[in-house]
Amino acid sequence: MLCSDGEKKLSFGGSIKDGDLVIVYEKRDVMKAVKVCETSMLQNRFGVFKHSDWIGKPFGSKVLSNKGGFVYLLAPTPELWTLVLSHRTQILYIADISFLITYLEIVPGSLVLESGTGSGSLTTSLARAVAPTGHVYTFDFHQQRAASAREDFESTGVGSLVTVGVRDIQGEGFPDEYSGLADSVFLDLPQPWLAVPSAGKMLKQDGTLCSFSPCIEQVQRTCETLKSNFRDIRTFEVLLRTFEVHEGKIDSCQGDEGLSVGSPPCKRRHRSSEGNTMKDSSSSPIIKARPCADARGHTGYLTFSRLQCLS
């Protein structure tokens, strides 16, 4: 399902096979992850879909139900996986993920340390960013959560790029075997300042660190600790505003001066350019755009810093 070698990027290729994980797209805000099994069926409001009909089709295919309804079968890319994964913990979303991958300068071949793993939303995107020759070592203190994340990484095809460890990074720090080898370190911990000294030992010279915290008090204490061995300390809050853009109709009287609020709608008639035929301008389509009502607000603060070079 997932192709990765020294010459190619991580990508989904070929056709859907028995045992593959697919994202079933019903509509923009209704998607679910389904493991393909030849003898299984998916039933929803559009009808019954046999998994056997999916096998052999390429990702992105439109498949029909017994009632003529349809869904799309999409590849479990990191972006889609973030929207459908099981929330074992609070997760990072696309806006924060894309920003921190760029700001941490993570590229193919990078070695990244992460704590904690949580639901694995960020880890999946990190794995794609370091592919095909890099690696992500992620740690969580909760054994069952780490085991579930490990299974998810195998299902989404990034298992060979991620190593999941069970460790209390706040109390024990990162393993000494990674000392001086990490290009980047990411911390998502209740008390990240406790892990900053260990993170500094893991980083290469001029390596980058990011700490995610939902509260500004956590940021303040982390920044105080970072001042001893790190430079270029910056904190960001990434707010994403999405818009709905669709075709609709507009009242031709809107914008007319002298009309009171609550006036009944009126119609303005115009001559067509080809004769005396009259037409109603109020029926003309127009493209409307407005902010989505369910726009996500504050998720957390991203604090970045760079290890101070020894001179």
UniProtKB/TrEMBL annotation:
Binding site for S-adenosyl-L-methionine: 119-122, 140, 168, 188
Family classification: Belongs to the class I-like SAM-binding methyltransferase superfamily. TRM61 family.
BP-aspect Gene Ontology terms: tRNA methylation
Domain (tRNA (adenine(58)-N(1))-methyltransferase catalytic subunit TRM61 C-terminal): residue spans on this chain: 69-306
Catalytic reaction list: adenosine(58) in tRNA + S-adenosyl-L-methionine = N(1)-methyladenosine(58) in tRNA + S-adenosyl-L-homocysteine + H(+)
Gene3D superfamilies registered for this protein in UniProt: 3.10.330.20, Vaccinia Virus protein VP39
Enzyme Commission designation: 2.1.1.220
SUPFAM superfamilies linked to this entry: S-adenosyl-L-methionine-dependent methyltransferases (SSF53335)
Stretches with biased composition (Polar residues): 274-285
Methyltransferase found in the keyword field: yes
Protein name, as recorded: tRNA (adenine(58)-N(1))-methyltransferase
Species assigned in the record: Salix dunnii
Annotated region described as Disordered, given as residue ranges: 254-286
Keywords: Methyltransferase, Nucleus, S-adenosyl-L-methionine, Transferase, tRNA processing
Gene Ontology, cellular component aspect: nucleus; tRNA (m1A) methyltransferase complex
